[in-house]
Amino acid sequence: ETGVTQTPRHLVMGMTNKKSLKCEQHLGHNAMYWYKQSAKKPLELMFVYSLEERVENNSVPSRFSPECPNSSHLFLHLHTLQPEDSALYLCASSQGVAGGYEQYFGPGTRLTVT
Amino acid sequence: GQNIDQPTEMTATEGAIVQINCTYQTSGFNGLFWYQQHAGEAPTFLSYNVLDGLEEKGRFSSFLSRSKGYSYLLLKELQMKDSASYLCAVRPSPTDKLIFGTGTRLQVFP
After folding, report:
1. Strand extents, DSSP E, A2-114
2. Which residues of B touch A104 (CB under 8 A)?
3. Residues of chain A whose pLDDT is less than 70?
4. For chain A, is the Cβ count within 10 Å smaller at the N or the C terminus?
5. Minimal-distance CA residue of chain B relative to A2
6. Rounded distance between C-alpha atoms, residue B24 and residue A56, angstroms
7. Is the CB of A100 inside 8 Å of chain B's CB atoms?
8. How deeply is A22 buried, as exposed, middle or buried, from its count of CB atoms within 10 A (0-12, 13-18, 19+)?
């Protein structure tokens, strides 16, 4: 238990569906992240929020839409996804975005797009 | 470009010592992290190196040589529960994102 929770743990959705992934951190951290983890590929940073402001967006397709209503919650809204978007989506938080702050990861949502 | 290299897979025997190497070519260097990830679980933080030398934490140690762009994670007295993927990540500058390697999958056999 790392103090970062994610729901749902597993999600199967069709290409025309709309769904949202939720992340919550109970660590009092100021920064939150979304990562994508595909088989045999490095962890890929998607979005970073610091104090509820988006500070990084790594050229992610617009079918992924993040939302950070407060420093404890982070959402990833999904719509019209493609089969290649099937992956493990990991949320993480850290005390700050810079320097030696380690990131605490949630258990991930295993997404399958059919 | 930014590049992190790690072996894809390693095997070792329970009770033995294993060294997992990581080499990096990045635009700068502001710290290197090691994470452990068991199958189907979240990565968990193991160590952080920003200066050259060895950092020891129980059975796990991490070494850094900035001049060589090289780090290793040393696992001693291996246990079955150490079977996992080990991720190396580098931060090129204080404000840069972490760049992750593809991870090394370690299997420990009895």
Report:
1. 4-7, 10-13, 18-25, 31-37, 44-50, 53-57, 64-70, 73-79, 87-94, 104-105, 109-113
2. 45
3. 1
4. N
5. B44
6. 23
7. yes
8. middle
Helical residues (DSSP H) of A1-114, grouped into ranges: none
B32 and B25 Cβ atoms separated by less than 8 Å:
no
Bond before B94 cis per omega within 30 degrees: no
Q: Where in B1-110 does DSSP place strands (E)?
A: 3-5, 9-13, 18-25, 32-37, 44-49, 53-57, 60-65, 70-75, 84-90, 99-100, 104-109
Taking the Cβ of residue A2 and every Cβ of chain B, the question of whether any pair is shorter than 8 Å is answered with: yes
Are A41 and B4 within 8 A, CB to CB?
A: no
Pairing, β A109-113 against β A10-13: parallel
Token pair listed for B13: 């025997």
In chain A, % of residues over pLDDT 90? 76
| Separation in Å, CA of B93 to nearest CA in chain A | 8
Ramachandran assignment for B40, one of left (phi > 0), alpha (psi -120 to 50 degrees), beta (any other): left
Q: How do residues B29-73 score in pLDDT, each as one tens digit?
A: 999 999 999 988 889 999 999 999 999 999 999 999 999 999 999
